[in-house]
Amino acid sequence: MADRKAELEKKKAKLEQMRIEKIKKQELEKKKKEVSESDSKPKGASDDDINAILSGLGIPSTASATTSPRAESEASSEARTETGSVVNEPVMIESTPSMITSSKAISLGFSKVAQTSIPPKEHIAYNKETQTPTEHGDREDEEDSLSVDTPGGGGRVQREVQAASALAAEDMAKVTRDERAGEEQKKEARIRILTEQEREELEMSEGFQLFLSRTSRVVERTVTTRDALDSFIDYRADADKKDAFDSKEAVRVTHKFVEERWSLGRIVASLDWSPFHPELLLAGYGENQQMASSDPDGVALVWNLNFPGASPEFRLEESSRITSCCFVRFHPHLIVGGTYLGRICLWDNRVNKHTPVQRTTISSNAHTYPVFCAQVVGTQNAHNLISISDDGRMCTWTVDMLAKPIETLELQKPVKSMSLPLNDYNQLVVGADDNRAYLVHRHGSKTGVQSTFESHTGPVTSVHCHPVSGPVDFSNLFLTSSFDYTVKLWSVKEPPKPVYTFEGNIDYILDAQWSPVHPALFAAVDLQGRFDLWNLNNDTEMPTATTWLEKQANLALKRVRWMPSGNTVAIGDNKGQVHIVDINEHLSQPRGDEWNKFVQTVQKMKTTPSWLN
Question: Which of 75, 200, 358, 561 is most buried by a 10 A CB count?
Fold first, then answer.
């Protein structure tokens, strides 16, 4: 193919050389014609006229004197014409004393004739058409320039040029066809049928799995979004009462998250909302007694609230069942969790695998019992992971390095829950199986357990410090729930007795959580599947709203977590389901006087007789 192109280039060069020679030949013929006309005698001139002119100059009009120079001039002109070149030769006229009859002497000599060629002024004209000629126009101009008739073989040159051009065009078309044929052959060579082994290797490759996961998620989201849209909605009609809260309706279950293989039949052990993407919800699950032998004991799923009908965004796996998990507040891609075997695991959703990127080892320097508490505390530039196991060992870790804890603290209490007061990273409150809650200091002159809060008659299942910041500081208050069917309100400044006890349930209360926006609102769930909302500014004796999520046998609600906006809560049960419940705005959003009213409510609860608590 390269030789053929080189041959075409040579032919093009030869055509260009023929055109140049043709132009030179035309210019040479034109110059010869001009010289011959300038050297010839003017028409109409006679011998008498010439003799008269010579006589006026004092030159005798003899035949010998005039004939010889003219003959010489004609001979030299003929010689110049035969050679084809113009030579500026001097004109010599011989004179003798006998030939001169005038009294005045005439002096003759040699002179040179200079020829000057001034080209005509070039006239340039522009038009409003495109300045780039088309391929067809170029071809016509080239043919016109080659069709000039010149004497002495111009037609033959034109025919040769046309023949060579046709041959070159044919060769170029052939080369193009050959190139296209070669490309098609290469394409056919690339497209081939994979063998069964090659297909399996491709399907198991990391790149294919990542591509399949992303594209299937996009398609699934698109289908889910289309199902959520109503093409027949009429905005002129009244709003659909099914989609709007009734004035008397406080809560409403919108949907639930469940995955048949990975979550169904497992206990929801932990819930957490993403601090970077409020629509993402993390749920940690325990083991499933009826799962396949190849499935891991521990699974964590990340659900997207914007696509309730879609599959989980991420799936995280661990060989031991997960007892606690949370998003790392200062790293949007990291998730940390504790397991039943005492390991701390770290997952990174940027990595295309389901297993942890880091995990601790089971050793005497770390945890050897189930880790029910794990939370990241601190600031953006200085933060650590705190974990507490069932044997009361508290470890502090660097999130990026889980090989060994930074420090350990022995609480010697069977801790099941943990919470930190607002903007306080030194002290924390823990709930234990010995029916008590404890105030613990991490640093300072005296570390460990500082205060004991005892009033429950059953194991403490959850503890949560007041998280709402506002005109009044309530960070000293915290809630505890217990197997004794009660929720109690405490103050870290007033141990050991509670501020108030909330009763009314007839089964174990497994979790209680403050609202993140309303100072006097909290939610509680129990073993019977009951969900309660308490607005303490309205009533301290009975919950403001109560609902049973589903009428299923043996349905127990294990965990409840508020969305950061305060309008939605997520509730996990013992069957692997996560229920999303919307709260009516008139109940979830605080008014301007809620803080002052809550101050009065707390003072009123403190004056309640102690025997009621």
Answer: 561
**Maximum mean pLDDT: which of 295-309, 326-340, 596-610:** 326-340
Amino acid at residue number 329? R
Helix (H) / strand (E) containing 598 = helix 594-606
Considering only CA atoms, which of 570, 567, 571 is closest in space to residue 583?
A: 567
pLDDT tens digits, residue range 487-530? 999 999 988 899 999 998 989 999 999 999 999 999 999 999 99
- Residue whose token pair is 């309730």: 308
Give the tens place of pLDDT for each residue, 13-53: 888 888 888 888 888 888 888 777 665 544 455 567 677 77
Strand partners of residue 448: 441
Q: Structure tokens of 463? A: 């503890």
Residue 78 reports pLDDT greater than 80: no
DSSP 119: P
Residue 431 bridge partners (DSSP): 417, 437
Is 192:50 a contact under the CB 8 Å cutoff? no
Structure tokens at 244: 């709007």
Angle of CA points 76, 82, 87, to nearest 5°:
50
Beta strands across the sheet bearing 268-273: 268-273, 280-285, 298-304, 314-318
Say if residues 482 and 456 touch (Cβ distance below 8 Å): yes
Enter the DSSP assignment of 590. Answer: P
Residue 556 neighbours by CB under 8 Å, 6+ apart:
510, 526, 527, 528, 529, 573, 574
Q: Is 487 exposed, middle or buried (0-12, 13-18, 19+ CB in 10 A)?
A: buried
CA 490 – CA 472 distance, rounded (Å): 17
Alpha-carbon distance 467 to 420, whole Å?
A: 9
- Which helix (H) or strand (E) segment holds residue 121: the answer is none
CA geometry: angle at 298 spanning 297 and 304, to 5°?
135
Q: Residue 485 and residue 506: Cα distance in Å, rounded?
A: 6
Bond preceding residue 467 cis, omega within 30 of 0: no
Is the pLDDT at 484 greater than 80, yes or no? yes
What is the C-alpha radius of gyration for the chain, rounded to an integer number of angstroms? 53
| The model scores a pTM over 0.70 | no
Residue 281 contacts residue 570 (beta carbons within 8 Å) = yes
Alpha helix segments (H runs only) across 112-231? 135-146, 154-190, 196-204, 206-228
* Separation in Å, CA 565 to CA 152, 250, 277, 583, 605: 99, 16, 12, 11, 28
d(CA 127, CA 133): 13
Q: Is 8 helix (H, G, I), strand (E, B) or coil?
A: helix
DSSP 304-346: ETT-TTSPPSEEEEESS-EEEEEE-TT-TTEEEEEETTS-EEE
* Contact of 515 with 496, CB cutoff 8 Å: no
Looking at residue 97, the DSSP 8-state letter turns out to be: G
Instruction: Answer whether 90's CB lies under 8 Å from 110's CB.
Output: yes
- One-letter identity of residue 235: Y
